[in-house]
């Protein structure tokens, strides 16, 4: 490498470092304090579901979800000074959402009474995911017990003979309507990876490999390599670019688990397809949904999809990915972040479509920013 090219690379790394440092500072000084301040409902002992974007005031309460509490538990378990609040969140998760008859309620009402008592795979996956992070941080034996019990329940109650899982069941775990969806399976993959890393339990490795095989069989469009939201052949199916990037990151973070599996090879194609058709070149904005031919069917740009795109770019580790990441870092803060927090959804023209700030979003920021931090050492 010439002295000139070496200097240019050094300058690029410095620029990336400054941009990432700015994002982290906004997260630490603006985003996180929302959820121990105005976003914390002291009397019920849970985070509000959402805050107003213009002044960070709590929005009217209709429900509290177990998944939202679990995501906050994950976030604060990962913070250097967050353990005390994580302790509070873990206690609240068990007190408010554990069903005495087994598993976890989907939601409670504004007064804390059970609201939706159905059993939802997405929710149970996030309980495992959050407890893995919390147990690793705190050493709380109850967290390990909840993790193990919930994973066992998922396998015995949600598991299907073909190796995938029911997306939702009735309160008593009976099947009301057979449905297999990509998104809960993706978050279960995320949860099992976290549980495997936290506990060292090698049971998770073959289970994760089998999930990858079944996702390939059930959801991957052979024409473009993308993971569809519904099983192939379903009516009104769609491709979400953000989920291509999110799946890519999960497999990229665990090469010892997945190796050179067929799903990984598909995702290389799927991410290229999503980037080509779903990412706006000028703004780096990621569209919500495409059809199988790459036409945009939902141009909304949701903040979580932007952060999953950044995480995937950070994990690529090549020059092309770093160049794309630099473009993303130049565009994202001005489009999505502000002094009170963030815009949840904007249009391709930058118009704010949803300005509330859900309590679930800091989880997406946290996972992306962690990948950015690791990229820069």
TrEMBL record:
Swiss-Prot/TrEMBL keywords: Isomerase
Superkingdom of the source species: Bacteria
Gene3D superfamilies assigned to the protein according to its UniProt record, in alphabetical order: 1.50.10.10
Family: Belongs to the N-acylglucosamine 2-epimerase family.
Protein name: AGE family epimerase/isomerase
């Amino acid at each position: 490498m010439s002295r000139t090219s070496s200097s240019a690379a050094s300058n690029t790394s410095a620029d990336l470092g400054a941009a990432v440092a700015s994002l982290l500072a906004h997260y630490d000084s603006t985003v996180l304090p929302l959820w121990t301040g105005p976003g914390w409902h002291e009397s019920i002992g849970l985070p509000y579901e959402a805050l107003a974007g213009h002044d960070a005031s709590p929005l009217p309460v209709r429900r509290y979800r177990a998944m939202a509490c679990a995501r906050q538990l994950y976030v604060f378990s990962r913070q250097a000074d967050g353990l005390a609040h994580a302790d509070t969140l873990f206690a609240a998760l068990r007190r408010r959402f554990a069903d005495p008859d087994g598993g976890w309620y989907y939601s409670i009402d504004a007064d804390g009474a059970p609201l939706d008592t159905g059993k939802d795979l997405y929710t149970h996956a996030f309980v495992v995911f959050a407890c893995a992070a919390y147990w690793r941080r705190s050493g709380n034996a109850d967290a390990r017990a909840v993790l193990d019990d919930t994973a066992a329940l998922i396998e015995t109650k949600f598991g299907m003979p073909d190796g995938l899982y029911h997306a939702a069941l009735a309160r008593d775990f009976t099947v009301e309507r057979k449905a297999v969806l990509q998104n809960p399976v993706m978050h279960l993959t995320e949860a099992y990876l976290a549980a495997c890393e936290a506990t060292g339990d090698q049971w998770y490795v073959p289970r994760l490999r089998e999930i990858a095989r079944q996702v390939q069989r059930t959801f991957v469009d052979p024409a473009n390599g993308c993971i569809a939201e519904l099983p192939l052949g379903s009516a009104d199916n769609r491709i979400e670019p953000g989920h291509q990037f999110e799946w890519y990151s999960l497999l990229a973070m665990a090469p010892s688990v997945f190796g050179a599996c067929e799903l990984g090879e598909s995702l290389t194609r799927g991410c290229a397809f999503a980037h080509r058709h779903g990412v706006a070149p000028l703004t780096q904005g990621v569209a919500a949904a495409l059809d199988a031919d790459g036409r945009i069917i939902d141009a909304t740009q949701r903040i979580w999809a932007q952060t999953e795109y950044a995480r995937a770019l950070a994990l690529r580790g090549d020059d092309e990915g770093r160049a794309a990441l630099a473009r993303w870092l130049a565009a994202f803060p001005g489009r999505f972040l502000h002094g009170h927090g963030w815009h949840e959804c904007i249009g391709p023209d930058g118009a704010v479509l949803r300005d509330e700030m859900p309590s679930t979003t800091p989880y997406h920021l946290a996972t992306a920013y962690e990948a950015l931090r690791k990229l820069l050492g």
